Automatic annotation (TrEMBL):
GO terms for molecular function: adenylate cyclase activity. It is a multi-pass membrane protein. This is Adenylate cyclase 2. SUPFAM superfamilies: HAMP domain-like, Nucleotide cyclase. Belongs to the adenylyl cyclase class-3 family. Its main location: membrane. The chain crosses the membrane at residues 29-54, 66-92, 119-138, 150-168, 197-217, 229-259. Keywords: Cell membrane, Lyase, Membrane, Transmembrane, Transmembrane helix. Residues 338-462 form the Guanylate cyclase domain.
Length: 517
């Protein structure tokens, strides 16, 4: 699969090919922005609850000025500085291997997996300290503010922790991907369920508890009006809707991103794009298993295509396609085919005068000319017999004019060898007739081939053609069976070929018609 800008499910996280300082700056920037945003949400939530959601008892009393305008602002600034500093230390320490672009060790992997929790713990501790400290400060001056302060700051801190964890986990996807790729990713089997429970607690459970507290306070405080009660319940309901929506969006993004990457991968597979690049596995939950499973499937398809390609190279594409479409079996059927036999002249002399490496290189160029010409005419190179080649036209794929295709291929081979393999010359014979085509051998090991007089005749014609290797020879039957190709051949002689009792009328390609095109 081609690497892209959404390897980690979002364009914000860049590509899997991005490494080093650029990736580190991107992650650090996202972490800082996300933590600031989460805390800003918590601060807005605390102010809204204190001022409007639970207006009574009021925190805006004259003797509370130093808490509202000195203690709270000072703590917010100190908490921001301390949180940023500690967060940077945690990231640099736990992700040092990623910053240096090194492969993680088992210890590095454990630290990287704990990094989100450490960052969230810092936020939780800071908000926990704020909850205790502000509850005490407000409670000392007005004991009635104790439950309100505890609930307001505690709820806001819980929201910050939940939102921070989801955002931090999102920002650290590239790190999680490297850990999982290194083999240390212990995926959490209940991760999606845990995220859903957190969303329910923050978006539903805590706001409902707040509504109950507002009603409870209103029932036992004489100075609470129906309007105060209505406003308080309304604000808490709006907060429940807002936080619930926010967390639902964040969780849905974390769930749909891996699914979307698998879906996009499936589309590429449907288009036939099966490269060596797998999907980036960056999710540590059950969704990561989905990505791993998809990669396993693609690996299997890739291996299947590789075997299919090798199979096609060994036996021919058409034979391979036919074998894959039905169960292979021994035996064959009669077919009318054209056969081309090409035999090298002086192969012993060639081997004696050159090194084995040079001989193989020349033979490979020789075979490449033949294979190209045969396949362009929809024929099958059936066998490489040492320094000879047997090609078939009309089996296993039917052709409208197998004889014409074989004769044209023979002319192209003769011209191609003269031009591109001047070190070698070969006799080329073409025959036409009835053969048996099918699988020959044992059920454990067999090959597709053709057996019949036409095969023997083409081999004998190739021997005869060695007298003038620039002109391929063909039997009269092959020329008569051909279409327009027949006019490019002329009669030479009638002779009895070696090993045969009947005379064969031999035709040769016209010199003016020899072409490799």
């Amino acid at each position: 699969m081609a690497r892209g800008s959404r390897d980690y499910g979002s364009i914000l996280l860049g590509s899997a090919s991005e490494r080093g300082s650029r990736q580190r700056i991107r992650i650090q920037t996202l972490l800082t922005v996300f933590i600031v945003v989460a805390n800003l949400i918590g601060a807005i939530l605390a102010i809204a609850l204190s001022a409007v959601g639970i207006p009574q008892p009021s925190v805006f009393q004259a003797d509370l000025w130093w808490v509202n305008f000195i203690a709270v602002p000072v703590y917010v600034v100190v908490a921001f500085v301390v949180g940023t500093a500690l967060g940077t230390v945690v990231v640099v320490r736990d992700l040092r291997w990623a910053i240096r672009d090194q492969k993680p060790t088992a210890k590095d992997a454990r630290r990287a997996q704990r990094a989100p929790w450490r960052l969230v713990l810092i936020q939780g501790v800071l908000w926990g300290v704020a909850t205790v400290m502000f509850t005490i400060m407000y409670g000392v001056l007005d004991p009635d503010l104790i439950p309100k302060t505890f609930f307001v700051v505690g709820l806001s801190g819980f929201v910050v922790v939940a939102v921070s964890y989801l955002l931090i986990e999102f920002a650290l996807r590239p790190v999680a991907a490297e850990v999982i790729t290194a083999g240390y990713g212990r995926r959490k089997r209940s991760g999606v369920r845990s995220r859903s429970i957190v969303s329910w607690i923050v978006g539903s459970a805590i706001p409902i508890v707040g509504i109950l507290l507002v009603v409870f306070f209103g029932a036992f405080r004489e100075d609470t009006s129906k309007l105060d009660l209505f406003v308080g319940v309304t604000v808490l309901a709006v907060i429940a809707l807002s936080t619930g929506l926010l967390l639902t969006v964040l969780i849905s993004v974390s769930v749909t991103a891996p699914i979307r990457s698998v879906r996009n991968g499936m589309k590429r597979v449907q288009r036939g794009e099966i490269s060596d690049d797998d999907l980036v596995v960056y999710d540590g939950t059950e969704l990561g298993d989905l990505q791993v499973g998809f990669n396993g499937m693609v690996t299997g398809l890739r291996e299947r295509e590789r075997v299919r390609d090798l199979f096609g190279r060994h036996v021919g594409r058409d034979v391979a396609a036919a074998a894959l479409q039905r169960d292979p079996e021994l035996g064959g059927s009669e077919r009318i085919v054209a056969v081309v036999f090409v035999d090298v002249i002086g192969s012993t002399t060639l081997a004696a005068g050159r090194t084995p490496t040079e001989v193989v290189e020349i033979l490979n160029r020789f075979f490449a000319v033949i294979v190209g010409a045969v396949e362009r005419r929809q024929g099958l190179v059936n066998k490489f017999e040492g320094d000879a080649v047997l090609a078939i036209f009309g089996a296993p794929i039917d052709l409208d004019d197998p004889a014409g295709a074989a004769l044209a291929a023979a002319r192209e081979i003769a011209a191609g060898l003269a031009e591109r393999v001047p070190d070698l010359s070969a006799g080329i014979g073409v025959s036409y007739g009835r053969v048996v085509a099918g699988n020959v051998g044992a059920i454990e090991r067999f090959e597709y081939t053709v057996i019949g007089d036409a095969v023997n005749e083409s081999a004998r014609l190739s021997e005869l053609a060695k007298r003038d290797p620039t002109r391929p020879l063909a039997s009269e039957r092959a020329v008569e069976a051909a279409g327009s190709e027949a006019r490019r051949w002329e009669r030479q002689e009638a002779t009895t070929l070696r090993g045969r009792t009947e005379e064969t009328v031999v035709f040769a390609a016209l010199v003016s018609e020899l072409s490799d095109r």
